[in-house]
Design a protein that fits this description.
With 324 residues, the protein is mostly helical. The chain contains 13 helices and 4 strands. A two-stranded antiparallel ribbon has the order 1-2. A two-stranded antiparallel ribbon has the order 3-4. The chain is globular, with a radius of gyration of 22 Å.
């Protein structure tokens, strides 16, 4: 019987970027999307039984590590509920490559731009909701407002940017319309989808994971970090692929003539970028965002006073789950 494995401890040091990268590369493996409901429940059951000390005799470290990987890729860390497969971070590569490839391929007409921005924002809204801080519930009205606002922001940005570039720049620069729209929409979609956190604050904890209070400033910091991560995640594919496509079309007559291959080529290329960029972007910031108590004292005195009153020995730094 294995008694040395630490189920709730990450296999890699989360205080370093390299450690976080290894962890997210491990837990966002696209193959995890193929796990059946039975496999997910078995992993959850083994994890629970190990934490309770009732796991089957002969359970190996490898089995425990696999259960941990499956659980942390598919169940919400706050609620323990199974996540929608399309909203999981392990679905970012297949989902993101299909949608981003389409956005990069079909950008020349306004209807195509609007349609694919709508598809992208629908996907983003699901991902943002799935990976929110679940201690801050969102009403259906708020979700609808967030989804509609982000979709409108993406469509308006893409249309206006396309019109500007059509009149003032070469066709090459029109390839960057999707990236501008995605970046703008992320700045709208994520804060609105997680507006309850900004309005009411998120739970903050001490270093021993004891809840000590609630903070709006911690929520704003965490959400800002998620926005940066999401833009970084899609940037290399959406910034470099237009250059690659332009070079191929100029140098290869066959590639330029056979336009049918452009969409699958860009889709596969985006997938290659995302395999590395999903863990790279997720690892930019620690999962538990830190904020100094002195900062709360200065900018959010109510939260500071609440924490001080709740603790005999107030911590110097508090932490909150920033979500993904």
């Amino acid at each position: 019987m294995n008694t040395s494995f630490e189920m709730e401890k990450c296999p890699w040091d989360q205080s370093t970027y390299v450690g976080r990268w290894h962890y997210y590369f491990w837990v966002t493996n696209p193959m995890l999307c193929l796990k059946t409901d039975q496999e997910l429940e078995e992993a959850k059951s083994l994890r629970s039984s190990y934490l309770n000390g009732t796991h089957p005799p002969g359970t190996t470290t490898e089995q425990l590590l696999t259960a941990k990987q499956i659980y942390e890729s598919s169940f919400h860390p706050d609620t323990g509920q199974k996540q929608n497969v399309f909203g999981r971070m392990c679905f970012q590569v297949p989902g993101g490559m299909a949608i981003t490839g389409a956005m990069l391929s079909f950008y020349k007409t306004v209807p195509a731009v609007v349609f694919w921005q709508w598809i992208n924002q629908s996907f983003n809204a699901l991902v943002n909701y799935t990976n929110r801080n679940a201690n801050s519930p969102l009403s259906q009205t708020q979700m609808g407002t967030a989804y509609g606002s982000a979709t409108i922001a993406a469509c308006v940005t893409s249309i206006k940017f396309k019109q500007y570039l059509t009149n003032n720049a070469s066709p090459f620069f029109q390839r960057y319309v999707p990236f501008a729209a995605v970046a703008a929409a992320n700045c709208v979609n994520i804060p609105l989808m997680r507006q309850t956190e900004l309005l009411n604050g998120v739970d903050v904890y001490d270093a021993d994971k004891n809840r000590v209070g609630c903070s709006k400033l911690a929520a704003a910091k965490g959400i800002s970090q998620v926005i940066v991560s999401r833009i970084v995640m899609c940037a290399p594919g959406m910034v470099l692929l237009p250059v690659i496509m332009e070079k191929l079309e100029n140098k290869s007559t066959w590639f330029k003539r056979n336009t049918w291959i452009h969409a699958p080529f860009q889709t596969l290329a985006v997938g290659c970028f995302l395999i590395g960029m999903v863990p790279t972007a997720c690892a930019l910031f620690p999962q538990f965002s830190s904020i100094k108590l002195s900062t709360l004292e200065k900018y959010e005195n109510t939260a500071y006073c609440d924490i001080v009153s709740n603790c005999k020995n107030p911590p110097i730094v508090v932490y909150s789950n920033k979500g993904l």
